[in-house]
User: Fold this.
Amino acid sequence: MRSFLAELLGTYFLVFAGTGALVINDVSGGVITHPGIAMVFGLVVMVLIYAFGEISGAHFNPAVTVGFWLSGRFPFRRIFPYMGAQFFGAILASLTLKILFPMHSTLGITLPRGDVGQSFILEAILTGLLVLVILSVTSGAKEKGLLAGVAIGGTVGMEALFAGPICGASMNPARSFAPAWVSGHLCGVWIYLLAPLVGACVAVVVHRLLSPGLGQQLSMGHATIAK
Assistant:
C-alpha cells in the first residue's frame, strides 16, 4: 500500500508542478519561459526520486513501469496497480489545476506542433533515452541513489528543453492523459499513450545488448565457434 500511495503522490506532484508551470506561464504572460518549464520538469522529477525512491522506486510513469517489467526487475502483478496509482495521481493534479485556474482551457496538455509522425517518433526516442538512462543508473526496480535523481532529472529537463517546442516532450502517458481528459482535449493524446511505450520497449532491448552479461555470453559463443 505504501508503494502505491507513493506512486500516486509522486505522479500528482510531477503533473501539478510540470503542467502547472505551463499553465502559470500562460496566465502570467510567459514569465516562466520555455527553459524555465523544462527546468521545472527536471527538478521536480529529481526531488521526487529522492523523496519516494526508497518507497516505491519512484516510477511516476507507466512507460518506466513497463520498462522495469520487461527488463525483469518488476513483477507483472504490480504493473496495473502501479499504473492505476499513476493515472489517478495525474488526474487529481489536473483537477487541482482546473480548480485553481478555471479559465485555462488546456491545463498544460501535450500536442504535436508539427507532423503527427514526427511527434510520435520524437516521443518514442525521447522515452527510449529516458528509460535507457533509468535502467543504467538504477538497480532492481527502484530509482534511488546519490546520482540517480540527478541523472534522470537532468535527462527529463534536457529532453524537454530541446524537443518540447515540437512534440511537447511528455515521455509519460499519465502526464499527457490527465490534462487532456480533464480539459476535454483528447485529440492527439494517443501519440503520448503509445509512443512512450514503444520507446520503453526499444530501450530495454538496447540495454540488454549493452549489458556486460550479454557481451560475455556473445564472447564465449564466438570463442566456442572458433574452437
Remarks:
- The chain has one domain: 2-226.
- Residues 2-27 form the longest helix (26 residues).
